[in-house]
Design a protein that fits this description.
13 helices, 13 strands, OB fold (Dihydrolipoamide Acetyltransferase, E2P), disordered C terminus, about 525 residues
């Protein structure tokens, strides 16, 4: 049996947890831990991040608060080996210890390259680096936008190179190109240039240059951030990436429409050489004039060759003229033969049109007309009789239908009359009930109005004092000597003039306090402000 020490202090669980927390935090106020991120499933809905750091033999819980997570240049990713800086603390709710991380750094250059390769594969799988997304650069941009640091040598090199080759207006969006918050500023600048409109107060650039000088992979890491790559891929303005030197490669180079090895080369890509462009235009103009002259000469030669091959007008009209002469010689004989043929045909027809034949035909047609007239009269009589019979039958059916309709209408009118009478009775009862209810509401409102009206107060013996402007006077201090007053009673008004100053024996502070309850006693007639009459 273990002997207990009677003098040992007793701890509560909370006190012991707080003591352990203070001990751990005092002993390990700031630590740097190297390990592999495990169990990271993304940022919590609260904005905090929870995961573990592990190595071959142990693991430790880690937490990144929301404010620290937003400032981190390297975000936590599953399987990434990092060096975490922060402080150790305990979590009494689970009796565990954890590290609260303030900053994250990749564990060496190899980790950065592995992270870069993994991010490159992820973005490439989404199609952000496809060649079909890339747009051609304008031959001669009217305005050039530059996203870079305003204090470095990069912007001076770009402006100097543009001035040597072909001066163009340049819009500079100043940003930080390395350090904390640089990626967000670069992405904001790209999206800001892309949001400009054609007709806005600030001209929209025709081409963008995102530029930075050379440096280590850590210095150029802002251009490998996902937010910058997505902004470059979504930009509708053709974009030239000019980050670092020839051997430096960043992810924005794959998302841009064109990659330049240096910022100076980006300026050379953006604009042509003015003198070379002028010489080229002059050469093209001379070539165009020579081509036009040679084309005109070729067409003139072809026209002359075609004119020699065409026959003359006399040759084209010779056959037609000969045919016309032959036809004009045969025309008189043809006219005489045609007239003779028509004369003979007319003579044969005239013998068949004698008066006797015409008279006999008229007699036959007259008899036929009389016969048709008799048949028409008989048909009309038969048709009239049939129509009369049909009319009588239809009239009988119509009379019967009319009588049935009248009976149905009378029955319907009787039912409608009864229904109307019932509705009128119900309407009368409803109207009386509504009038009673409304009368009660009016009486209650009148009673409430009478109770709240100051006329009822006047009827109990009080008076309402008004000044010359007809405004009520609520305090004695508002009455000045000689002031014209209007006194309203329940049965009319009276006018008076104040002949003395109001009593001033009470201080304002005392006037604000409620009066103390005293035994009721009769006041002397000399107290108060006196009579106003």
């Amino acid at each position: 049996m273990v002997d207990t020490l009677p003098n040992s202090p007793e701890w509560t669980v909370s006190e012991l947890s707080q003591a352990l927390k203070r001990t751990v935090e005092d002993a390990y106020g700031h630590v740097r831990v190297r390990g592999e991120i495990s169990g990271f499933r993304g940022v919590h809905s609260s904005g905090h991040a929870y995961f573990c750091l592990k190595d071959e033999g142990a693991r430790i819980d880690a937490v990144v608060w929301r404010t620290a997570y937003s400032r981190m240049r390297i975000k936590p990713e599953e399987g990434l080996e990092v060096v975490a800086s922060g402080r150790l603390t305990t979590y009494p709710g689970r009796s565990t210890y954890q590290i609260v991380i303030d900053t994250l750094e990749p564990a060496g250059l190899g980790a950065l390259m592995a992270l870069l390769e993994q991010r490159k594969q992820t973005l490439a799988a989404e199609g952000l680096f496809d060649e079909t997304r890339k747009r051609p650069l304008p031959a001669l941009p009217a305005v050039i936008g530059v996203v870079t640091s305003p204090t470095g040598a990069v912007i001076r090199d770009i402006l100097h190179r543009l001035a040597d080759r072909f001066p163009r207006p340049v819009l500079v969006w100043p940003v930080r190109v390395q350090g904390e918050g640089a990626a967000e500023e670069i992405a904001t600048a790209i999206r800001g240039f892309d949001a400009l409109t054609e007709s806005g107060p600030i001209p929209r650039p025709d081409v963008l240059i995102v530029a930075r000088g050379g440096g280590s992979i850590e210095d150029l890491w802002s251009f490998n951030e996902e937010i910058v790559v997505r902004a470059a891929a979504d930009c509708r303005i053709p974009l030239i990436s000019a980050v670092g030197h020839e051997t430096d490669v960043t992810l924005i180079d794959f998302a841009a429409d064109r990659r330049a090895p240096t910022p100076t080369a980006a300026a050379e890509i953006a604009v042509p050489v003015r003198s070379e462009l002028i010489a080229r235009l002059d050469g093209l103009g001379r070539r165009l004039a020579g081509c036009f002259a040679r084309a005109q000469e070729n067409r003139y030669s072809a026209l002359r060759a075609a004119a020699r091959a065409l026959p003359s007008a006399d040759q084209l009209l010779a056959d037609a003229r000969q045919k016309l002469d032959g036809a004009s010689g045969r025309l008189p004989r043809a006219l005489l033969a045609n007239a003779q043929a028509h004369r003979e045909r007319f003579s044969r027809t005239a013998h068949r049109l004698s008066p006797l034949l015409l008279r006999a035909r008229l007699v036959r047609e007259h008899e036929r007309v009389f016969e048709l007239a008799g048949r028409s009269r008989r048909c009309l009589l038969v048709q009239r009789e049939r129509r009369r019979e049909r009319l009588a039958a239809v009239s009988g059916r119509l009379s019967a239908a009319l009588r049935a309709t009248l009976a149905a209408q009378k029955l319907g009118l009787a039912r409608d009359r009864e229904r109307l009478q019932s509705l009128m009775d119900r309407a009368g009862r409803a109207e009386r009930a509504l009038l009673v209810a409304r009368r009660g509401r009016v009486e209650r409102a009148a009673g409430l109005l009478a109770a709240l009206s100051y006329q009822g107060v006047l009827a109990r013996g009080f008076a309402l004092v008004r000044g010359p402007d007809e405004r009520p006077l609520r305090t004695a201090a508002a009455v000045a000597p000689g002031l014209r007053l209007s006194l309203e009673f329940s049965d009319g008004r009276a006018f008076a003039t104040a002949d003395g100053a109001p009593a001033t024996d009470a201080t304002p502070a005392a006037a604000d306090k409620p009066p103390a309850k005293k035994p009721r006693r009769k006041k002397p007639e000399t107290a108060g402000q006196g009579s106003l009459f």
